[in-house]
Design goal:
The structure is a homodimer.
Chain A lengths: L1 E5 L8 E5 L9 E10 L2 H8 L15 E9 L10 E4 L8 H4 L5 E5 L3 E3 L13 H14 L7 E4 L5 H12 L3 E6 L2 H9 L4 E4 L5 H8 L5 E6 L5 H8 E9 L9 E3 L1 H6 L3 E4 L3 H4 L3 H17 L6 E6 L3 H8 L7 E5 L1
Parallel strand pairs in A: 8-9, 8-11, 9-10, 11-12, 12-14, 15-16
Antiparallel strand pairs in A: 1-2, 3-4, 3-6, 3-16, 4-5, 5-7
């Protein structure tokens, strides 16, 4: 089989496709033929060597994939032919040996789930990291309520779009932010109630105007760094700011603590592990809700672009180009 | 009557005692003869002109006081002779006209309560700001649980000591921090399980050692600024950090957002208004619990030093000297 390997940490061209043995599943593991690999920011960070979990080199790469079960324990909940996709479980998978940017991968059955009926095999890598990240943040941790206003920043990413869809299903009002006029139009078409172009408009001023000077109830942000101080201005008294990424790496967050204190703001760090790594029943419930909404059409992954496996370098290049709107997939 | 007035914002000697008319209560207001005035950090900040609510000059000063009712509405819940003390309600009292560093003050009956039986008149200004601030933070907002470990930083202040007592009553383990060896001993005597002298010891290292490298469950901090980054190191995964003061004013808080994100830390700004300004039933319940514990001896205000009203300048000077251990009172 083919498998993407990193020789060193660095730009996209540290990646190369190599021939490798099809891995053998151990007990409780499942062998999957890959039909869809999801690109995430964590893949770029991993390749650059700045992701918190750093693999040993040379290393595989890629956490998110879906496909068809080839081989499984006879005691397993899965059997050959099942359509499956990987659940986010970054702390459990060491991409050094188990990188999923490949024709096959093995996974512990516990961290696979059935691909929803409405999701074709080629999109099976476009679901769980984004929808579970957004659902966990907005619903399980952030308790977004009907009628609330949420700011979703850097909304053009796949998790931003997933969050917009979940927020709208919950009856919330969505203010999306982006840095390009072209994406403003696409975000409105994708369901945002309002869009702020933070490159050309004063984000705080616009957010306050859009909320009658009250401030947003909730802000969901993967940018952080200097944006944190601005979020504290844009959120309402007793509001909440969930940060889940560091697009401004390695900039620190810096702000006037008086603002956090006097507005009683909750600033919370979040990853998808937060609600789901230790609470299996919450994970199962979230998977069920997301699957149902996918099958009923309330949630619909937006696929930005597809690359064949031999263009893994181009996929990484594109992922860093800032053009992304929705999910980038690699289809072997 | 005598009343402390600020001519300008600045050092303690901008204050002077002047003769003033005894104020007349309007409907729903109560006239109180003052027996005890509580000094708080907010008084110092107000005098320096850095408190968020800035009075017009010349201005009175002082939010916390207790004493004996002289005059009240006949429909009031209070009558002449009642022992009362003021509840924290910074957003409702404009010290420009209603400064309580005086022989008398008027207050809306809604923001007075009965002084607990066990608290003598001369200590009536030593209860509510500190115990409600600590109780609201630890119990109503922070949900401190039995067996948890809490770091209480700058623990020698009256709110720090109140928090230590409440934490111990709740079955939590207390790590107190201070910057003097002398106060280390006094904090241990006052109930802290462990003390860290942050001037001579590595705070993060010691906090991790004391928690078996796990980190504290909860940190309650009035310092902020550069301490925020250290708290994020010292708190456990999924832990919570409540900040309620800015002793490092005007320093900003600055930290690596990756730490907040990957540890799923909740960093929350807090003032006593947070749980109690809009939730009267929570306030009533907290007053009841605190009163009962005061009367039963589980909570005991530590009085640091008393000043007569004519020494209001000295009281402010002392309050800024860093020698404080417990509550500074002015007894007219």
């Amino acid at each position: 089989m083919r498998k993407a390997m990193m020789r060193s940490f660095g730009p996209p061209d540290v990646l190369e496709l190599v021939e490798a043995e099809i891995p053998s599943p151990k007990p409780h593991e499942v062998l999957v033929r890959v039909t869809s690999i999801g690109m995430n920011r964590s893949d770029v960070d991993c390749r650059q060597g700045i992701y918190p979990v750093k693999p040993h080199l040379p290393s595989g790469i890629g956490w998110e994939a879906g496909g068809i079960v080839v081989q499984a324990d006879e005691n397993s909940t899965f059997k050959a032919g099942d359509r499956v996709s990987s659940l986010p479980c970054s702390k459990f998978v060491d991409v050094t040996d188990y990188g999923r940017t490949a024709d096959y991968f093995v996974a512990n059955a516990e961290w696979l789930t059935n691909t929803p009926d409405s999701v074709p095999d080629r999109d099976a890598g476009a679901i769980w990291i984004n929808y579970l990240t957004a659902y966990g943040a907005l619903m399980d941790v952030g308790k977004l309520e009907q009628g609330e206003t949420i700011v979703i920043s850097a909304a053009s990413g796949a998790t931003g779009i997933a969050a917009m869809q979940i927020a709208k299903l919950s009856g919330a009002r969505v203010i999306a932010t982006t840095r390009s006029d072209d994406k403003c139009d696409r975000l409105l078409a994708a369901g945002a109630d309002h869009v702020i172009n933070t490159r050309t408009e004063d984000y705080v001023c616009r957010a306050l105007t859009l909320t009658g000077d009250r401030g947003a109830d909730f802000i969901f942000d993967p940018i952080t760094g200097p944006f944190v101080a601005r979020h504290l201005e844009a959120v309402r008294r007793n509001g909440r700011v969930l940060i889940y990424g560091v697009l401004t790496y390695p900039e620190f967050a810096s702000f006037d603590p008086d603002v956090l204190i006097n507005k009683h703001i909750t600033l919370r760090g979040y990853t998808v592990d937060d609600p789901y790594l230790t609470d299996r029943s919450a994970l199962t419930a979230a998977i069920r809700v997301i699957s149902d909404h996918l099958d009923e059409g309330g949630l619909r992954p937006v696929i930005c672009r597809r690359f064949p496996l031999e263009q893994v370098v181009e996929a990484h290049e594109y992922s860093e180009s800032g053009q992304q709107f929705g999910k980038i997939l690699i289809n072997p």
